Amino acid sequence: MRLTLVFLAAAGAAAHGAPDAAAASGHPADWATWHLLEEHHISNFDPPSFHKLHDFSNTGTWSPADIQRFYGLDDKSASHVPASKRKDVSDAILKLYDSNHDGAVSREEFVAGIEKGKRLPDFGLGPGHHGDDEYEYEIHHWEKYHGGPGGEGELNHPEDIKHYAEHEERERREEEWAKIEKEGRVVVKNIPRKFLREL
After folding, report:
1. Fewer CB within 10 Å, N side or C side of the chain?
2. Which Gene3D superfamilies does the UniProt record give (predicted)?
3. Are 112 and 23 in the same domain?
C-alpha cells in the first residue's frame, strides 16, 4: 500500500523540472497513469504490477526492446519515429532506472527508482500503443463508438471500414493459400534463391 502511494505521489511531481507533454495536453500528469488508463483501462496499480505487465519477454527485466514496445514504438503508428529517437527513449529509461548498468531494468530497480521519486517520462509519443491491430481497434475505437447497447449499428466510420477491409484481405489471402495447398502446387517465388538451380 505504501509503495502504491509513493508511486502515485511521484506521479504528481515534475520530472527533472520539466512538465510532461501528457500534463500539458490535459492527460494525467504521469505518463504511466495515462498509459494504463488509455491502453489497459487500469486506474489502480502498483509499480511491481506495472513492471510485470510490460515484461514482454518474460525475463523479469525490461530490455531496450521491451521499453520501446511499451512506449508504442513497435506500433505502425510510430513508423515515422527515427531509430535514433527510439534508442534515445530506451537509453533514457535505462539511465533513470538501471542502477547496476547491465542494460536492463529489473523489477527491483524499477520499484527502487519509484521509491526515490523517479517516474517514467512522457517523450511526446502518445500513450504507448503496444497491442496488435485487433486489440488497438477494440480498445480505441470499438469501445468508444460501438461498445454500448445497440453499438454495432452502422459500422461506417473510416476506422471501421479500414479495419474490416483488412480482415477481408487477410481472409482472401488465406483462402488463396488454402487453394494452392489443396492443389499441391509449388510456389516458386516463395523458395529462397539459394535453393533454386539455374536452368
Report:
1. C
2. EF-hand
3. yes
Which residues lie across from 105 on neighbouring strands?
A: 62
For residues 51 and 88, state if they share a domain: yes
- Beta strands 61-62 and 105-106, pairing class: antiparallel
The reply to whether 39 and 79 lie within a common domain is yes
The residue behind cell 511521484 is 10
113 vs 43, 87, 101, 129, CA distance in Å?
Answer: 21, 21, 14, 24
Sort 148 into a burial class: Cβ within 10 Å, 0-12 / 13-18 / 19+: exposed
What is the domain extent for residue 39? Answer: 2-130
Secondary-structure percent of the chain, ordered helix, strand, coil, rounded to 5: 55, 5, 40
CA distances (Å), origin 49, targets 32, 82, 110, 111, 173: 12, 30, 11, 10, 39
